[in-house]
Design goal:
Largest interface: A-B, 39 and 34 residues
Number of helices of chain B: 24
Number of strands of chain A: 10
Number of helices of chain A: 6
Distance between the termini of chain B: 48 Å
Strand content of chain B: 15-25%
Helix content of chain A: 25-40%
Radius of gyration of chain A: 17 Å
Oligomer: heterodimer
Helix content of chain B: 40-55%
Number of strands of chain B: 22
Strand order of the largest sheet of chain B: 3-4-9-6-8-7
Largest sheet of chain A: 6 strands, mixed
């Protein structure tokens, strides 16, 4: 049971420490956060601020040192490895900075990799159609540009209709024009599927397309700004 | 120079210089920075390097084992033959006066002549149901007391050659010396003392003082063992006509000349001749002269070492060992070179940026290349050292096995350093060869080019898509098939590497099966008699009829055997013509001793000509329809031409066959039998053995089953040990190849596999992508291994084939399955070890990893 039906992530007192030789590095020091279902959140912050650590913990890729994360009514911090795998398989879509497509599979097959193991997935054609790449379904990653590869990665991430899409520097490896194309694809997903989206980036400009911008510093959320009006991705400049 | 400087005592001056050296990092006692990198990387990937070093070690060990045992056998043989004056030419005859030896000594090319009295004896051995047979030989007068003087005299005689100055009398003296292992020589005055061959004494648990009941020339006589001996004539102790040694039922006994002359009615005469030739002299002419000299004395045809059974078996074994010592290590070292190539190609790829940085800093290409060659050297030298020790240990095991078959006065194995050095050199060449291609690539890399990350693997649509579509493969399987298809050469090499393990296993199974199959064919399909009874001399049919009446004898087939020399132009061969009794009218088919064609169907010998075994036909270069010249080597010594009317498939020996009527006509004799083949009731065997002892004309009884069991037991024990070694080596190959391949696959795919884990694939599902690749390569590898193994087996069949025996090319389905099954098991075991890395995949770093 969730305390509030609209809250998809409820994070309380989240701490993550990494041992580094004899030292202990504290990446997160007591983060509290609620993310509403369908919210588009951008997390900003310099390197080492803890944004990637937070994303990894929300995605069930890592476990915290202290604190709790609830995903709906599921306590992620108490989940077993198998339950976390199931969580990632059913509820989370990932978009990586360097796309992480399987080079031996075509665009369609990269998407099928996910749809094959999901119960309520769309077809690869549908998913690629949403990112405007239906005509490149038979292309291998090496035959696609960087922007196209990232859009295939988005199609792969949303094909199973995840409740949340986690994007780690999705435009980090792309030029402006291509990056905007990728953000437009993410916008489309948000608009048409109502997926909760969390994007982490160094790029302050990207915050303008979000409902909410969190700024992290030294392992804590330093600012939490909600936008009354979101800008369209195509109007961005950086 | 530098070394001398460093060794100088640490005076103030030297210390300051040492300090400078140290800062420059050029002291020979300090590791260069690149060497530290080498040490750390070796330690970091020690399992992979140990896996390769183990394959090198396996190759080196077989190399050291085979070649050092070969050298040891070769040297032991040479020393034994020389020290105990093993003759070059041998002849048996009915009876000749002793003075004939002096005229034989005058034959050009003869360095020394020895005459002996020999005879066959049947023996009753305590604890043995079947009668044993012994070859009894007289001891020379001077043979066992001359020692090194004799060797020196032989050398003089051999070198002196035909010089007139050499006294003929000095050439008539002992050859084929007997080495007394224990006990003493027989007393010249005692009529019953003998020296018995060591193999026989050991096999029957006899000792000095044991007594045997013998039948000599039809007369019963007690024989007391006073000594145990060895002879270069019986290094491999085997009865003439046998294939397997049967040390329990065949003995060599030596008695004094006086005793032998009395027992075999040979006073002042001899029936066994040995000749030592002048060095470099071909035996052919001397043999012709000896045959001529013995013509009137019942000579059975002289022959040289090539036809002397023991020498021949020993020579064949040494030849086989020579082949093993080269082929098997070549396989292992080839695999090691391949593995080094596989591992280093990847290592260089992973270190592109480091290499570029080193080049940017000003390191020469050769310095970096030398750094990588050092990896290969460490692995090769490490593997060679382990292999040399292992080879030394295995060689002692092999010598232990050989000691069962080959009897030398001393059998102390020692490691020959030359062999070890050679194995080291060969393995270093193989290992460095394995990394050369990689090193060449290092030298070609431009710093700027290498600084850039490697291009992502490029895939295009191709035949693999068709395969995937046709088979309706799932997405993970498509990944596997496309990855393998994209890099056909490394995939093929990995498959060949793993396939070699299958091939080695198949060869190991084959060597056992082939011998079984050869024996089954020869002794169950072709020759089906239980006993072979040999008469002292050819007997009239009445003798055969008498045996037929014995209680428990179910079938009798008389045979007549005569020694002949067959020739076709310059090709000639000394063989026996065997005629099997086919009834007075020649219309009784053979049931016990059958001739079979290449398809295994019985063939009947056509009257008026010869049937030859396939090997004999090949040696003489004849086919059915051709004619061969026949020279009978006993009795009337007839010479005639006979047509070849058939060819029979046989795995052992080289024989010629004729109908008994034809042979009798050629020999112008009435029907006679040299012996009989008997089929008997098993429960009456003892009574039949006892009855046969009472027949004075019977000189040898050979019980097929007992001989086979005894010989096969020794052979299987040896094979069992060898199979154990081979299986272990095959496992080393399979584990070495698969482990390295799996590790590289894991290294190359870790980002993809981690991505799959992140997007929701379970560990097991991801493992299947990895294991599937190993499985598929192994499935491709096994048929390749079968094919390569078949080739190796064929090479063995071809290499071993001799007129003594041929092993059939028979590999059962069972063997193919076992070889494939073990390979798959070893492959999956090593893949499972590497699979553990999937559980440790870093899912967090994959989010940022550029690949």
């Amino acid at each position: 049971m969730t305390d509030h039906p609209d809250i998809i992530f409820r994070v309380r007192g989240l701490v993550k420490e990494y041992p580094l030789g004899e030292l202990v590095v504290r990446a997160l020091s007591g983060v509290d956060l609620d993310v509403a279902a369908g919210e588009f959140v951008v997390i900003l912050g310099p390197s080492g601020s803890g944004k990637s650590t937070l994303l990894n913990l929300l995605g069930g890729l890592d476990t915290p040192t202290a604190g709790t994360i609830r995903f709906g009514d599921q306590e992620l911090t108490a989940a077993t490895g198998h339950q976390l795998t199931h969580y990632r398989r059913e509820s989370v879509g990932f978009v990586f900075q360097f796309y992480n497509l399987i080079p031996s599979l075509t665009a369609g097959e990269n998407v099928a990799l996910v749809t094959d193991i999901s119960d309520r997935a769309m077809t690869p054609q549908e998913a690629l159609g949403m990112v405007d790449l239906a005509d490149r379904i038979d292309s291998f990653p090496s035959q696609l540009s960087g922007g196209q590869q990232q859009r295939v990665a988005i199609a792969r991430a949303i094909a199973k209709r995840p409740r949340v899409l986690l994007c780690d520097e999705p435009t980090g490896a792309l030029d402006v024009k291509t990056g905007i194309g990728v953000l437009e694809a993410i916008e489309t997903i948000h608009r048409e599927l109502g997926t909760t989206i969390i994007v982490i980036t160094h790029n302050v400009a990207i915050g303008e397309i979000a409902d909410r911008v969190l700024t992290m510093r030294d392992g804590q959320i330093a600012e939490d700004v909600r936008h009354k009006q979101r800008r369209a991705a195509r109007d961005l400049q950086w | 120079m530098r070394f001398a400087k460093t060794l100088r005592p640490a005076t103030g001056d030297a210390t300051s210089r040492g300090g400078t050296d140290s800062r420059r990092g050029s002291s020979p006692f300090r590791l260069q920075t690149l060497d530290r990198k080498l040490v750390r990387e070796l330690l970091g990937s020690w399992v992979a390097f140990v896996a390769i070093a183990t394959v090198v070690a396996a190759g080196v060990s077989v190399f050291v084992m085979a070649l050092s045992v070969l050298e040891f056998l070769d040297l032991s043989r040479e020393r034994y033959y020389e020290r105990y004056r093993f003759a070059d030419v041998f002849a048996e005859l009915t009876r000749a006066p002793n003075h004939l030896a002096e005229s034989i000594a005058t034959i050009p090319g003869v360095a020394a002549v020895d005459t002996r009295v020999s005879g066959m004896v049947t023996l009753e051995v305590p604890g043995l149901n079947e009668p044993a047979t012994a070859k009894m030989l007289s001891l020379g007068e001077d043979i066992n007391s001359m020692g090194d003087d004799a060797v020196s005299m032989d050398r003089n005689a051999r070198d002196a050659g035909d010089r007139k100055g050499m006294a003929v009398s000095s050439r008539v003296r002992g050859l084929n010396g007997v080495h007394l292992v224990s006990g003493r020589w027989p007393d010249p005055e005692a009529a019953d003392e003998v020296v018995a061959s060591e193999a026989f004494v050991e096999a029957n648990g006899l000792r000095i003082g044991s007594e045997l009941a013998g039948v000599l020339q039809g007369r019963s006589q007690r024989l007391r063992i006073v000594g145990v001996g060895l002879s270069p004539e019986y290094v491999f102790q085997i009865r003439g006509g046998d294939f397997l040694p049967d040390n329990r039922r065949f003995a060599v006994l030596w008695g004094t000349r006086r005793q032998m002359e009395a027992a075999f009615d040979m006073q002042g005469a001899f029936n066994n001749l040995s000749v030592l030739l002048v060095a470099g002299r071909s035996p052919r002419q001397v043999i012709n002269q000896i045959d001529l000299a013995l013509r009137d004395y019942g000579g059975l045809g002289a022959y040289d070492r090539e036809d002397q059974l023991s020498a021949r078996f020993l020579d064949d074994e040494i030849s086989q060992l020579r082949a093993t010592g080269l082929i098997v290590p070549a396989i292992f070292l080839g695999v090691a070179a391949f593995l080094l190539n596989l591992v280093f190609a990847r290592r260089v790829e992973l270190q592109r940026e480091s290499i570029a940085t080193l080049k940017a800093f000003g390191y020469e290409g050769w310095q970096i290349a030398w750094h990588f060659v050092k990896f290969a050297l460490v692995v090769a030298v490490g593997g060679s050292i382990i292999g040399a020790f292992l080879g030394w240990w295995l060689a002692q095991g092999l010598c232990g096995i050989y000691a069962n078959f080959f009897r030398f006065p001393t059998f102390d194995y020692r490691l020959y350093p030359g062999v070890v050095v050679w194995s080291g050199v060969v393995s270093v060449i193989a290992a460095v060869g394995g990394v050369l291609a990689t090193v060449a690539r290092v030298l070609r890399l431009q710093p700027a080019e290498a600084m850039r990350p490697a291009m992502p693997p490029r895939y295009t649509h191709g035949w693999a898509d068709g395969v995937c579509r046709h088979l309706g493969l799932s997405t993970p399987w498509k990944m596997i098939v496309r990855r393998l298809a994209r890099r056909p050469v490394p995939t093929a090499l990995a498959a060949v590497g793993i396939g070699l393990a299958t091939a080695v296993l198949l060869v190991s199974r084959f060597t056992i099966e082939a011998v079984d199959s050869m024996i089954d064919y020869q002794f169950n399909v072709m020759q089906r008699q239980d006993l072979q009874v040999t008469f002292r001399e050819a007997m009239a049919p009445a003798a055969v009829d008498e045996l037929r009446k014995l209680d428990g004898v179910r079938q009798v087939e008389p045979f007549r055997a005569i020694p002949v020399r067959l020739s076709n132009g310059p090709r000639e061969k000394r063989v026996s013509v065997l005629a099997i009794g086919t009834g007075p009218q020649g219309d009784v088919p053979n049931r016990l001793f059958r001739l079979l064609d290449s398809g295994g169907l019985p063939i009947r010998i056509a009257p008026g000509g010869l049937a030859l075994t396939d090997k004999l036909a090949e040696l003489l270069g004849v086919t059915p329809g051709d004619r061969v010249e026949v020279e009978v080597l006993e009795g009337g010594r007839q010479r005639f031409s006979a047509p070849v009317l058939g060819v029979a498939k046989e795995n052992l020996g080289t024989n010629a066959y004729a109908t008994d009527a034809t042979l009798h006509r050629w020999l112008q004799e009435d029907r006679r039998a040299s012996g009989v083949f008997l089929k008997i009731d098993a429960d009456r065997s003892q009574a039949i053995y006892d009855a046969l002892r009472e027949y004075p004309e019977v000189i040898a009884v050979s019980a097929r089953k007992a001989t086979l069991e005894s010989g096969l037991k020794t052979m299987r024990e040896s094979h069992g040990k060898m199979e154990g070694f081979t299986t272990a080596f095959a496992a080393v190959i399979a584990l070495g190849v698969v482990y390295n391949m799996a590790r590289l696959t894991m290294a190359e795919q870790s980002r993809e596999l981690a991505t799959m884990r992140v997007i929701g694939f379970t560990r097991w599902e991801v493992s299947m992508v990895f294991l599937g690749e190993v499985l598929l390569v192994t499935l491709i590898a096994i048929p390749i291994g079968w094919l390569v193994g078949w080739g190796f087996c064929w090479a063995i069949v071809w290499g071993i084939e001799s007129d003594l025996y041929r092993i059939p090319m028979a590999i059962s389905r069972h063997s193919y399955l076992i070889a494939g099954g073990w390979t798959m098991l070893a492959a999956m075991a090593s893949a499972a070890i590497v699979r553990g890395a999937i559980d440790r995949l870093d899912l967090v770093s994959v989010m940022k990893d550029q690949g």
